[in-house]
Design the sequence.
């Protein structure tokens, strides 16, 4: 049976309410892309040390990048009902934001595959683990760091079409924009 939704609209539950792994066997393989992001806020001095490479543990962002890639590759082992997916690309970028009210490192992850199910969880796992790794490597100088705003920014491919989170407005709030694939593209 293909990934039919239950009366609640949730695909990971069967008609009796029991958890199950969605059957994607009948779905057509398509190009899937997911982009996620997040940030870790820290003291200005902590960000300055990171930017200067003045940390005891070495290349913090380099290690965090590898951790994020590993997290994307191992998502099915971390999230119980996620499918193992043959990823074709994982990219991780960081941006230092020293001018924010709370200085921060922002992460953006991009995960791609050609498959029967999306890669949103892989992109989100990569973003979260990349930020957790930064925390781990800098906690000796700043235990008050805060991981925040881990979210899906965009996804493309599959029957549900395209989702793009709109840019932040001046108040720091994000709005959501969603488009759906045409009926012909869904078949």
Sequence:
């Amino acid at each position: 049976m293909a990934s039919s939704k239950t009366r609640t609209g949730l695909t990971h539950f069967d008609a009796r309410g029991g958890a199950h792994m969605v059957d994607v066997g009948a779905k057509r393989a398509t190009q899937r892309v997911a982009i996620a992001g997040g940030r870790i806020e820290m003291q200005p001095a902590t960000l300055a040390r990171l930017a200067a490479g003045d940390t005891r543990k070495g290349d913090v962002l380099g290690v965090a990048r590898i951790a994020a890639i590993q997290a994307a590759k191992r998502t099915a082992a971390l999230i119980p009902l996620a499918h193992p997916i043959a990823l074709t690309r994982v990219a991780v970028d960081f941006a230092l934001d020293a001018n924010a009210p709370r200085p921060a490192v922002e992460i953006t992850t991009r995960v791609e595959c050609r498959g029967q199910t999306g890669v949103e969880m892989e992109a989100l796992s990569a973003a979260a683990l990349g930020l957790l790794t930064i925390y781990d490597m800098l906690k000796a100088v700043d235990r008050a760091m805060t991981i925040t705003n881990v979210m899906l920014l965009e996804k493309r491919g599959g029957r549900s079409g395209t989702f793009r989170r709109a840019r932040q407005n001046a108040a720091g709030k994000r709005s959501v924009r969603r488009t759906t694939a045409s009926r012909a593209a869904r078949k």
